[in-house]
Every structure is written in C-alpha cells, then in structure tokens.
Amino acid sequence: MAKLTENTINFMGVRRLASFGSLTAVILSIIILAINGLNLGLDFTGGTSIEFAYEKAPSLDTVRQTLDDAGYKEFVVQNFGDEKSVLVRLRQDFDNQLAENMAADLRANGDKVEMVRAEFVGSQVGDELKESSGLGMLLALFVVLVYVGMRFQFKFGVASVLPLAHDVIVVLGVFSLFQWTFDLSVLAALLAVIGYSLNDTIIVADRIRENFRKLRTGNSEEIINHSITETMSRTLNTSGTTLVVLLALFLLGGEAIHNFSIALLIGILVGTYSSIYVAANLLIMMGVSREDLIVPAKEGEVGQQSEEEEPPEWLNRM
Amino acid sequence: MLNKFPLWKNIVILVAVVIGFIYALPNLYPDDYAIQITGARSSTQVDQATLDKAVDALKQEGIAVKEATLNPPNGLIRVNSAEAQLSARPAIQEALGRDYLAALNMAPTTPDWLRSIGAGPMKLGLDLRGGVHFLLEVDMKSALQKRLEVYSSEIKRQLREEHIRYRGGDVGEGNTIQLVFRDDASQNQAFDLIRDQYNEFLLDKTTDDNGQQVLTLQLSEKKIKEIEEYALKQNLTTIRNRVNELGVAEPLVQRQGRDRIVVELPGVQDTAQAKRVLGATANLEFRLEARQDAPSSATEVYPFRDNPDRTARLEREIIVTGENVANAQQAFDQNGQPQVNITLDSTGGDRMTRATRDAIKRRMAVLFIEYRTETVKKRIDGKIQEVEERKVNRSIISLATIQSTLGSSFRITGLDSTAEAGELALLLRAGSLAAPMYFVQERTIGPSLGQKNIDSGVMSVTVGFALVLLYMLLYYRFFGLVANVALAVNLMLLVACMSILSATLTLPGIAGIVLTVGMAVDANVLIFERIKEELRLGVPPQSAINAGFSRAFVSIFDANITTLLVAVILFAMGSGPVKGFAVTLCIGILTSMFTGLLVSRAIINLIYGGRKVEKLAIGGKLANG
C-alpha cells in the first residue's frame, strides 16, 4: 500500500491562494466582459461586404496594404469566386459612400477597379443558431452535472461543471481584454475546451474516488493531493501532446484559425489548471469525505476488492 | 492465458482496420475541376452531340479538356485547373444556349472499384473547399400586390353583403386600394365598415375629377412590414424544404437584410440541379376556362406549355394556388401515363369544392407560373452589355373537363414525362413561394475563402500530429510506438466513418479532430501510466499490463461518456458549424475508444502475450518486477 505522504506533492497546500486566484480571474473576466464586451466577428454581428472586380487579378496582400494605408479597420480581403473579384468585408454598417470611397482608394494606384456589389451582410449564424447553440451548451453542462452526479456523487457533479464554466468565462475574458475577434471558429474552440477540460476533470475525479475507497488513512486533502500526484504524469503528457498540436496550429495555421488556436491554447492551459485547482478545491470546500463514496459494506466485509470500482465484466473477458 | 486475444478477436480488429483503410482511401484522390451540363428542364437530356458541342467550344477557347463523360441525363467535362474551370463555364453556356445549364462542379476521382463498393471522399464544407452560394431576392412588391388583391376582393364581397353599393375598386399605387362610390352615404357606410373591421388600413375620403366619391385605403407601415416579414419567412421555409429535397449536407439557408435569402450548399456535387430546383420559383394556379360569353375584362389568354401556338381563355379568378397544396406525389394512371396526385389543405379543398360544384362539364386549367432571370445582351451606350431581365412565364399545363365536384384530392394529368411529373411533384411538395424570387447572384465559392489559410492550417495539423507521434515515441519508447500506431489507425477510422456517413468536414470539424487526437493519446497515456504504477507496486509484467488496461478503463469510459454526452447534445441542438464540430467529436470519441483500448491492446498482446516477460520497460526507465 502506497504511503500517503511519500512522493506526494502538496497541491492543496496552496488551495486558498488558488481559490483566490480563480475567483479573481473569473470576477475580472466578468468585469472586463461587462466593460469591453466581446469583439464579435462578422459571423455574429453581420457587417458590410463589398465586391470589386479587377481587370487584372490583383495581389490580395497589396489590396490589404492599400486599404490599411487608407485607414480602414477590421476588414477581411478575399477572392470571391474568381481571382479578379475581391471581396472586402467590414465591421461597420453599409452606406453608399463607403463603397464609393473604397473603390476610389483602390483605384488610386492605377488599378482598374469596379465596384460590383455592395451589401449589408446579415448575421451569419442567425438568431436561431445562436439561441440553439447557447441553449445546447447549457443543456450539456446540465447533463454533465446529472451524469457525474449519478455516476460519482453530487458533489463531484458540481465539481466538474463549475470548472467548465470557469474555463469558458476566463477564455471569454481574455478575448474581451485583448479584443480578439470572437467568431464561429472561436465558439467551436470553446466547445472543444469544454470537452477537453471535462475529460481532464473526470480523470482526476475518478482517481480521487478510487483512492477514497482504497486508502484507509489520510484526510480528504491528503487523498486528493495523492490522487493528483498520481495522475500528474498523465495530465502533463496529455496536455503536452495537445499543446504541441495547438502550438503547431498557432504558429503555422495562418490567419483563419489564429484565434481558434489561441482560444484552445488558453482554454487547455486554464482547463488543466482548473481540473486540479478548481475541481479538487471545490471538492474540499464542499467537504467531500470518504462517506460520500464508500460503497455500503456488505455484511461487514471490508475487503479492498469489493470497494474498488470494478471494470465491467466484458472487459475482463477480452 | 493472460494477455492473449482469441484468434477471432484479432481477426475482427484486423477486418475493422482494413475496412476503415478502404473507405478512407478515396480521400487521397484529389477532386477534379469540372463543368457539369444539365438540361434546363428535366425533360431535356444531355446527349453526345451536346457534349461534343461543348468540347468544341472549349477547344476554340484554347482550354484543355481532361475528360468529357456522358452520364445521362447529365454531362461532365473535367478540366485541369481552377482558372480553366472558371473560363470554361461561360464558354460552354454560350455554346449550348438557354436549354442547358452549365455549372461549376468538383468531380471526385475515386477509382471505379472503390466507387462500386460505395466508397467516396469526405465532403469538405464551404469554409474549407467552397461550394455554391446563391443570393435570392424576394419580390416584395409582388407579395404586397398579391395580398392587396386578396384584401380588395374580400372587402368588396363584404360591401356586397352589407348592400353598400360601389362602382369599382382597384389596387392602386403606393400600396393602396381605391374604392369608388356613387354618393356620400355609401362612401360613409363603407368608411365605417372598413374602419371597424380592417384596422390595418388608413382611410382617406376624397372626390375625384369626375365628381365621384373615392375611398382610399392605405396599408399601414406596420402591416407592410408584417406582410414582407411573412413573405420572407414563408420563402425561407420553402427554400429550406427544397434544399432538404436536394439532400445537401449542412446547407445554409438564411435571410440577408430585408428581402434577400442566402443559400450556401457546401461541397454540392450537382450544382446545376440545385439551381434548377431552387430557381424554379414556380407556382400553380387552378382556374376555370372562361365561358363563351364572358367579358374580356374578366378573362386572360394563355398558351399551352408544350405547344405555345395553342391557347386558351381562362377566367381571371383564381380558385386555388400552390400555397394550398398539402402534398403532391408522382404516379401513373391506368395507361401508364405520368400524373401528379395532389392533396390540398382544408381551405384549398373547400374552395375547390365550392368552385367546381357549379362547374361540372366545364374545363379547369392548371396554370404553371415560372419566374426566372434571363441574361440578355443589349446595346447600351454603343457597347454590348449583359443585362439581367426578370421574366414571368405563364403557361397551361393541363386543361381538363371537370367530371365531378372536386374535393381536396385530385390529380393533374397530361404531363410530358415521368421526370417532369417528378419535378412538378417535388416543387409542389416543397411548398410554394409566398412571393416570387429571383437569383440576384450565383457563385461557386472556390477554395479562395481563405485557401492559403486552410492550406497552412492542414499543414500545421500534420506537423502537430507528427510532433505528437515524436513526443509519444520519446516518452514511452516502444509503448509510444504502439500508441502511435493506434493513433494513426484512429485517424484513419475517423476519416473512414466520416466518409461512409458522408459527413461534411468543416473548420470546426477539424477542431473536433484535434481534440480527438489529444484524447485518443490520452487513453494510451492513462493505460501506460497505470501499468507503470502497477509495476512500481511490484506486480509482475503480465499482470501489470492486464491491470493497467482494466483499471484505466473506468477512467477512460467515464471521461469519454461525458464528453460523448456533450457532443450528442451539441449535435442535436446546434446547427451549422456547431453540428460539424459535434459530428467529428462524436465519431472521434468512439473510434478513439476502439483504437485506444482494443487496437493497442491487440498489438501489445501480440508482442507480450502468452510468454514469460521478466522485465517490462515503459518509457526510458526500466521498471523491474
């Protein structure tokens, strides 16, 4: 039987500091969100798109430079359909002047440019989509709460859902702070973060449950410390491999998935932290104890085996 | 024996991996740029002569043709590059004329033997590969006009019922109805009646030049907005239904601004058909043939659809329109001729009964109304320019004698072909439009929607994947290699499943794959760490392997099930991009559980199982039993 104190890192020793840190991060994020709001991408806000037809296929980089020099902000330049058509999307609302002015700016360097189309782009996701995505996210969190509550214990349910909310709020806060564009790809990244962080939290929770049942000594804090230590190399390796992928995505992925990979990078760092310091911390705060998890002893039998979570029989047959 | 799979289990795993390999294979063949030629009407077939004409046109333009194939009723011409494709389309369209549609397409190059077992590549979403983008404009003027006509006849009927005499009433300029009265008294009576019952109108009493009393009903702004809103929503629903009939994965149908609808069909294979089905803003009207003595002001003359020289005089009054159609099915009559069986909703059925009750032995016409945009070459300021013109084409599909009072079910016969009957039924079933719509824009979105970014995105995922392989190899050595094989198999199975389900891969979908790569490794990391722990506790290697797999299973199972629950909910609730993410996540979780638990176990069993293992090394350190 492993000794509790040996090689165990005292993670929970700094739990008050961590609670303070997490709480500060969440409150700060909410304040920043309230003040700055999110810099919603064209996907959510809609905006203006103007299509230009060039006589000769222009270099998109040059077009971007020209518009940048002319003082336009937050625009996206792309080919639309063929190489000679250039679509410029802007955050600002459409007015007739805007398209005219932009065409004039693009013509300034001698290119033959004609404005083909200028229109207001409605929200790409639409209210319907936004609503169902938001509702879906809430429902997902609720189902996680119920499942984990049933499979583990109610305290674990709360301890696995709150870190998810923590992660989402902090990532949103960072996006709000730096005013990075929040578009559909970032929303998807956020969902990926939820999935990842949940995975992480469950692994730690699973070990905590196992150790509560297996180890006869030690208080909750010691057992949790021991469990986190045991799962540490797994946590580091999985986070490591995922971060490696994301780093590659971030450095090589280009503009379109830039914000997506930033959201995932932050989310996974925060998610790894939160499954230790938010989830485990919450368990201690809610006073999780051996009694919460102990399988009712059968006729005084205190054998270790009956208390372990048994893998299903079919797996053993494999 | 510990750690030994029975033969059948190894075979099952092997078969699953081989099937996965075969179905993932088509994704390695890049799509060809192609032009698809389809008949503008379903009765028009593309034949070899037409195809040759198109190929000749391309030769004249100096565009190299890779392959021209005829797969009736369509023709497909493959070219070498995106540029060639873009210039080939107008050339072909010009050569073939209005009877055919030439559309940009991406043609899969899956070899025949793969296609014969139903394998095909994964579809890429609009954000990754492009697809078709349509912009449709709803004709609001016509929606309002139509609605005002209904109001006008309703109000006139009420005036007659109340014995208020009027001389005439017409829908006028600026969303008004103008009623003309002989005297003040009836004007006032009408004023009171309309004010009480129709608060959507602003009323104005005037006297016209001829000294007649005129009551002008001006539709309120609020009501106009309401009607427009309704028309747009109705058309949106109709377009959605039609898109669904097309069987496109992850389509986007969305309003844009006040009167436009965007349709995006990612990776759509048959763009020409899409355009025909969406673009055929057809409607039907059922009208009685005019009596011989009917005044010409109450009748209209229309040609027949299959024979424009033949015409018939119909009453102006419409019995029912396509809006009242509840269902329409293509069928055959006793002579094997194609027909369409129509079921009307209750309102439509009532109206049909009322109209046909007194009209037995008279003839009823089915009027087919097509709205379309035609490109006409015109000389403007001395230059020839292409101008888009909107045309309304009304023609009679059938003119049949009413044998008995018709109810809510009846049929249309006299159609050209089975194909035409099928298309008409589809259009009727998919709902009719509240107002006509016109294509104001049609594009096939090339991969240009961030092509460069997507390329580098895919590149970075590949690099990331390679780094993960390296990481696992360095950290877990031999066991890392096993995990890497499992990871590669996992990715292959994921791609295979997505291909089999013809799921559409989108940018958010790639997010799901990235997460899957992380989580699939996670299963093996958990197992290996568990085996290490067991070894540290002094458990012999064989038992440690077994215990590692079975103990880690609980964690893997719980973690994956919760994530799967989240993914399933997101799939059910979300739409568009969120759905794309959820699909890959769901499939990825399932495949990673398969590979993480079974494939890696099978490999380890093959190597270590059934023999005496003295020492087991996981990673750099040697853990001695």
TrEMBL record, chain A:
Keywords, in A-Z order: Cell membrane, Membrane, Protein transport, Translocation, Transmembrane, Transmembrane helix, Transport
Membrane-protein topology: Multi-pass membrane protein
Annotated compartments: Cell membrane
InterPro entries xref list: SecD/SecF_arch_bac, SecD/SecF_bac, SecD/SecF_CS, SecD_SecF_C, SecD_SecF_C_bact, SecF_bac
Annotated Protein export membrane protein SecD/SecF C-terminal domain residues: 105-287
Residue segments, region Disordered: 299-318
Major place of residence: membrane
Membrane-spanning segments: 20-42, 132-149, 156-178, 184-205, 236-254, 260-284
Family: Belongs to the SecD/SecF family. SecF subfamily.
Subunit structure: Forms a complex with SecD. Part of the essential Sec protein translocation apparatus which comprises SecA, SecYEG and auxiliary proteins SecDF-YajC and YidC.
PANTHER family: PROTEIN TRANSLOCASE SUBUNIT SECF, PROTEIN-EXPORT MEMBRANE PROTEIN SEC
Function of the molecule: Part of the Sec protein translocase complex. Interacts with the SecYEG preprotein conducting channel. SecDF uses the proton motive force (PMF) to complete protein translocation after the ATP-dependent function of SecA.
Name of protein: Protein-export membrane protein SecF
Lineage, broadest ranks: Bacteria, Pseudomonadati, Pseudomonadota, Gammaproteobacteria, Pseudomonadales
Automatic annotation (TrEMBL), chain B:
Ranges for domain Protein export membrane protein SecD/SecF C-terminal: 440-606
Keyword Disulfide bond carried by entry: no
Phosphoprotein among keywords: no
Coiled coil, from the record: none
UniProt-listed InterPro entries: Acrflvin-R, SecD, SecD-TM, SecD/SecF_arch_bac, SecD/SecF_CS, SecD_1st, SecD_SecF_C, SecD_SecF_C_bact
Transmembrane segments: 7-25, 457-474, 481-501, 507-528, 549-574, 580-604
PANTHER family: PROTEIN TRANSLOCASE SUBUNIT SECD, PROTEIN-EXPORT MEMBRANE PROTEIN SEC
Family: Belongs to the SecD/SecF family. SecD subfamily.
HAMAP family: SecD_B (MF_01463_B)
Protein name, UniProt field: Protein translocase subunit SecD
Lineage summary: Bacteria, Pseudomonadati, Pseudomonadota, Gammaproteobacteria, Pseudomonadales
Gene symbol of the encoding locus: secD
